[in-house]
Amino acid sequence: MKTERRRALRRYFPFALLAGALLGGWETEARLGLIPRFILPAPSEVMTELVRQWRPLLLLHLPATLQEALLGLALSLVLGIIIGILMFRYEPVARALYPLLLFSQTIPLVALSPIFMVWFGYSVWGKVAVVWLTAFFPVAAGTYDGLKQSECTYRELMLTLGATRGQLLRKAQLPPALPALFSGARLAAVYSVIGATIGEWLGGSRGLGYYSRRMAGSLQSGKLFAAVLLLSLLGAALTLSVSMLEKWILKKRSRYR
Known about the structure:
With 257 residues, the protein is an all-alpha fold. The protein has one domain (45-255): MetI-like fold, CATH 1.10.3720. The protein contains ten helices and no strands. It is globular.
């Protein structure tokens, strides 16, 4: 246990030192008044506003953003994995879909979000559509690239022994592709929060993105930064959850080898 703590301390000490230095410099600058408070509030002011506004932030806006991000992330994972497998299994599908997937990522979300709002209205599904468009590409690309790199020497042997293509995919190709798949899933977890925020910013009545837009419009930068802090923590929590799921699946897989 002590050894693990020492390793964790060595691993995260540089980050903690840099974060502490940045926060200390930020707080000092705010105390000295070098930059107006409505442009850059002090970290202590941000935390004060977070405590003051905990009820609307944590009970109203955070659950709305979390719901949109989770729904969009789940949809991105399911469809992204299916699309990645289809592109791997069928070369014509890859030739047809992969350029289209790349093209979809070149379109600014700010331009597409109002279209989704027209199609789906201001319900939760309009934001989920924005999240899906933001987050599905890393999953699809990670699944496809991972499977392409997982062509193992046992492929011909398994086919000779009578393995079906489905068995070959499940037992020989998909397991080695899991790290690439989860790498894309971690990116998708971050992008899901970004997509939900953009959707709420352009049209909505709840959520941290909607709250941020209101606070920015009234120049209440302390409350704005408090909402941004919660969005950052939400993205980190989703990414950590995906990483924990990856470790659990890989550990379980190694146990039954």
